[in-house]
From TrEMBL:
<dbReference type="InterPro" id="IPR053078">
    <property type="entry name" value="TTF1-like"/>
</dbReference>
<feature type="domain" description="Myb-like">
    <location>
        <begin position="124"/>
        <end position="172"/>
    </location>
</feature>
<dbReference type="GO" id="GO:0003682">
    <property type="term" value="F:chromatin binding"/>
</dbReference>
<dbReference type="GO" id="GO:0005730">
    <property type="term" value="C:nucleolus"/>
</dbReference>
<dbReference type="InterPro" id="IPR009057">
    <property type="entry name" value="Homeodomain-like_sf"/>
</dbReference>
<protein>
    <submittedName>
        <fullName>TTF1 factor</fullName>
    </submittedName>
</protein>
<feature type="domain" description="Myb-like">
    <location>
        <begin position="173"/>
        <end position="255"/>
    </location>
</feature>
<dbReference type="GO" id="GO:0006363">
    <property type="term" value="P:termination of RNA polymerase I transcription"/>
</dbReference>
<dbReference type="InterPro" id="IPR001005">
    <property type="entry name" value="SANT/Myb"/>
</dbReference>
<dbReference type="Pfam" id="PF13921">
    <property type="entry name" value="Myb_DNA-bind_6"/>
</dbReference>
Amino acid sequence: VDLDTAKQELEEFIPHVRDIADDSIRKMAGRDLTRFKRFKKQGIAVKFGRFSQKENNQIRKNVEEFLLISGIDNAEKLLFTSRYPEDKETISRLKAEHLFCEKLSEGIPRPWRLIYYRARKMFDPNNYKGRYTNEEKEKLKRYHAVHGNDWKKISELMSRSNLSVAMKYSEIKSAVNYGPWSKEETQKLMRAVEEVLRKRTEKEDANSLSSSKKSHRDLLIDREKLYKKLPWTAIEAKVGTRYWRQCKHKWTSIVTKKMTKGQLLCRGIKGLQAKINLIKRLYEMNVEDPNEVNWEELCDIIGDVPKAYIQARFYKLKISCVPFWQKKTFSEIVDYLFEEKLPELEEKL
């Protein structure tokens, strides 16, 4: 299909498709459009966001099956072919012959590119090598000074994954402060978010409103846009002294305080009742994976808050109450909270 038709057809499944580069849209039209239509007939929506455990298992199954039918030795050769220059031609031929793109994405209602990146992250032996030593951090700074954002090159030099070196550099590129937020830092964060929101609103206005309405519209922002899909790495760069995750958590707390008019929602009797309600609702949902939870539906447990606040409450609950929670599945954590912690909280209440 031609580019305009591809955009039009893909827009049904990917609302922001017109913001994607033309070259990427052409690839999506070839790799994804037929799959998306097939999923639609089955009543399955295209997904974004974090991969569920079920999807991760499907990727493993798809990769293992492709290795069997193609005869390629291992997943690293399949997904990181450039690391094996002597075998590159043979591997590429086998991938084409056995329809690698179709096989990898089988049963997963997501854009192929995202499935491919997820598979690379899962099967990269360089991706789980523990904490960076001080020596590695200094090497990373030196390599970045020479190679810039060529993460592929730097990952080869560091024997770490592309994602790992990019994320670690984002964390260490400036003097990150781990203490309480200063007034100056908080103001920088608020200005950075405001700048992002204003630019986004101006872009929307240019597409939908006449110039006479722009000045008034500039002050009106839908509440959900205050905390959904913000470009945190860009905001991190503007703040300068905090890692992007810190910026996100701080902004969530600011928005929550504004939305709740400064009420202390998780202390005293209200706090106990909120924990009890959260545990009960999660137990009733009976889901196996946190990505299957509709966190927005749980907001009424505490009050008028963003879903990130609820997720943060659950995280705090599990790390403070569930022994060895890192080794437990999501459903095991919820079961433990329901069976062991809930009676204690109810008695305390």
